[in-house]
Amino acid sequence: MTTPPAVATRGLGLTIGGARILVDVDLTVPAGEMLGVIGPNGAGKTTLFNLISGVLRPTAGTVELDGEDVAGLSITRRARRGLGRTFQTSSLFPQLDLVENVRLASQAKEGAAMSVLAFPLASDRATVTARDCLAQVGLSHLETVAAGNLSHGDKRKLEIAVLLATDPSVILLDEPMAGVGSGDVPGLTEIIRRMHRERGCTVLLVEHHIEVVLGLVDRVAVMHHGRLLACDTPEVVMADATVQSAYLGEGA
Ligand SMILES: Nc1ncnc2c1ncn2[C@@H]1O[C@H](COP(=O)(O)OP(=O)(O)OP(=O)(O)O)[C@@H](O)[C@H]1O
Fold first, then answer.
1. Which helix (H) or strand (E) holds 133?
2. Which of 87, 92, 107, 249 is close enough to 245 for a disulfide, judged by CB 3.0 to 4.6 Å?
3. Residues ≥6 apart with Cβ < 8 Å to 236
4. Are 63 and 117 in contact (CB under 8 A)?
5. How far is CA 86 from the centre of its chain?
6. CA of 228 to the centre of ligand 1 (A)
7. With contact defined as beta carbons under 8 Å apart, do 156 and 215 qualify?
8. Residue 46 in contact with ligand 1 by CB distance below 6 A
9. Model ipTM?
10. What is the pTM of this model?
11. What are the average pLDDT values for consecutive 10-residue runs of the chain, which has 252 residues?
12. Does the beta carbon of 39 lie inside 6 Å of ligand 1?
């Protein structure tokens, strides 16, 4: 029996008030792949993530996770099936320290199966997980600092640690380098590369730093005006004349 793709969309579309935001997107992401999603501003990249994660409901087509149609599942139930996501805007608790921020995510994951009696044990486990996840993103030395006092680059690392604490098998990263200084880009790139390699998870990465995407991913999906223009290896996609005129021609 063949393994179903980790993520598949078929004929996926979203029309709002007559505006066609996403049109007929067929995308298949095998388990373990790192897929880059690129395209000019407004191409539909975040909308694609919103439809996959359940933030938005499609007006056409389907979304499958591990071969199963998840149309009827809420964001939370998709998350319980192993789908994890970061957002363009920060979703951290600024007054809490780093361990607490990550611990809450870990505890929320455990909470679903946790009884009141098991709470102290689960709480200890969540702290160990939190410290481990902070180590994975190189933030152990800042464990007791309030999240609000971190640099922008370190906040993006913390967001990844929060995500790792939920132990996802499919990870959607929405512009993880947005707003960070160029000095932080190599460190964040390496964290994403290591996370993918060591966890063997499936990663979908929306990112405007095109050279970062091309150096990291197995394949690149190019979005343009809500459509999937191309999806292939970085070499093939970047040599594609349609992609060059549609995407690079707009100077995105
Ligand atoms: N809820 C909504 N209602 C109306 N229009 C929307 C809605 N959500 C997104 N859009 C529009 O859909 C288009 C695609 O937006 P989306 O945020 O998915 O693009 P994007 O490729 O992620 O862009 P960026 O790179 O700037 O983040 C844009 O023109 C946007 O204005």
1. helix 119-136
2. 249
3. 230
4. no
5. 5
6. 15
7. no
8. yes
9. 0.94
10. 0.90
11. 91 95 97 95 94 95 95 89 81 92 82 53 79 95 95 93 93 92 92 94 94 94 95 94 75 45
12. yes
